[in-house]
Amino acid sequence: MLLEKLADYAVHEQTSRLPDEVWHHAKRCVIDWSASLLPGMLCAPATVLIEALEDEVGHGRCKLPVYGQAASTRAAAMIMGAGSHTVEFDDIYRAGGYHPGSPTISAALAAAQSVDASGEDFLRGVIVGYEISTRICESVMPSHYVYWHTTATIGCIGAAAAAATVLKCNREQFMNAIANVTTHMAGLQQAFRSESMTKPMHAAHAADVGMMSALAAKKGLTGTLDMLEGELGFGAAMSKNPDWGKATAGLGEKYNITEITFKNHGSCGHTFASIDGALVLKHQHQLNAEQIASIRIETYGQATDICGRDTVTSAFEGRFSLRFTVASALIHGSVRLDAYTPERLNDAKVKDLMSRIELVEDPVLTAGYPTQRASRVKMTLTDGRKLEFFQPYRKGDPEQLLTDAEVDAKFMELAEPVIGAGKSKALLAALWKTEAGKASALPFTR
Predict the structure, then answer these.
(1) 421-432 and 404-419 helices cross at what angle (nearest 10)?
(2) Domain extents for the chain?
(3) Which of 129, 136, 413, 423 gives a 20 to 30 Å CA spacing to 327?
């Protein structure tokens, strides 16, 4: 049975000797998650949840980042899940089209705070959550992604696996945690199609039900153990021809956490290859927007489908628009949080360049999805020259991982406006030494 193999791995990993590289990349993931979390905690839906869950805030064993308020374990997981998925800077597992950090690390940290776990045990939870959930994600892709948001669905397993590991669930308890959380998987891609707070709530829900399932399993709640691969289970209901061999391939030997994509742009990951390609042409030829007569972007179908909008009136729409993000990058040099201020959203130069951008699905690139996220950017200049650049992957992908220095710079850029320069530096230093103390001692508050 699949769950038996996953549980054997997870229980072994509670005390195993892990490679130094794995510890290092786990800390990178926590730092990157923190960079996305801190500004997101100041935005809806995290701020709305703090008010809506008033019965769960103000008491409890957890502490909310930024604010320092006490919270119940489930409320903390949910609020951090929402906060870390709001500003669209959270990590990606490319082969699964999945943001593992938001649900997985949110649940792991809430669990660690609730039992005063060590930083090492917290990191072990993160590692197990990433390794199991990324593999299950690959097992059901790409068919699962037609309707379902992987961060909302597979994220439930990442959260449950992480929390169960931190809580030191035994083999039977771990299986029950995953079995029960599987039936709670939900999160429709329709959430991407219009302005709302729903998408970040996908990560919030995943962190919450993952936390609930782990806590309940620890106390003896049982689950249906073939919920993943059963005749009427997850794979049958929410994908086509799942390959369950991928769910355990290399488990405990090859660590997917070392190949996580960190975002280098503040937008949907489907825009990245096109932004990167456009910026290469801009820098190679020292271009300004006035020199560009038209742009043709040829990329994979999921990118044109999800990010194909041609007009932008809000930050949400901007983050999910290839035309806006590429035009903004070419005019302003980057796509960071300031790309979505009212002034930038209404920038006449950006809107003018957007009108000259054509999006085209390339069937060959679509066939390479999800393991490849590529784009071909073609520019025609006003002097008649034609330029072209093929971007085979995104900066931040495994082929070009962000360096530690770039991860640090991203963290400081996003954290400093929220908790100040001094506390940001102190938190960053503590995160690089997470295993040296208690997880609850990490200084997330301002």
Answers:
(1) 140
(2) 2-263+401-441, 269-395
(3) 413
Dihedral sign from CA coordinates of 370, 198, 88, 182: negative
87: amino acid identity, one letter: V
Residue pair 410/402 in contact by the 8 Å Cβ criterion: yes
Superfamily of domain 2-263+401-441: 2-methylcitrate dehydratase PrpD (1.10.4100.10)
Per-position DSSP letters for 65-83, written without gaps between them: TBT--EE-HHHHHHHHHHH
Q: Is the pLDDT of residue 64 over 90?
A: yes
The CA-based angle 161-164-166, given to 5 degrees, is: 110
CA 318 to the chain's CA centroid? 18
Residue 64, φ and ψ in degrees, nearest 5: -75, 130
Q: Note the Cα 280 to chain centre separation in Å.
A: 25
> What tokens appear for 392 in the block?
């085979």
Q: Residues 355, 244: contact at Cβ < 8 Å?
A: no
Closest among 392, 188, 397 to 300, alpha carbons compared: 392
The amino acid occupying position 240 is K
Report residue 6 as tokens. Answer: 């996953």
Q: What are phi and psi of 246, to 5 degrees?
A: -70, -20
Cα distances from 215 to residues 62, 111, 363, in angstroms, run 14, 9, 45
User: How far, rounded to the nearest angstrom, does the alpha carbon of residue 377 sit from its chain's CA centroid?
Assistant: 26
CATH number of 269-395: 3.30.1330.120
pLDDT in tens, 129-165: 999 999 999 999 999 999 999 999 999 999 999 999 9
One-letter amino acid at 76 equals: A
CA distance between the termini of the chain: 47
Q: What is the mean pLDDT of residues 263-291?
A: 96
Q: Quick check: 46 and 197 in contact, CB under 8 A?
A: no
pTM of the complete model: 0.93
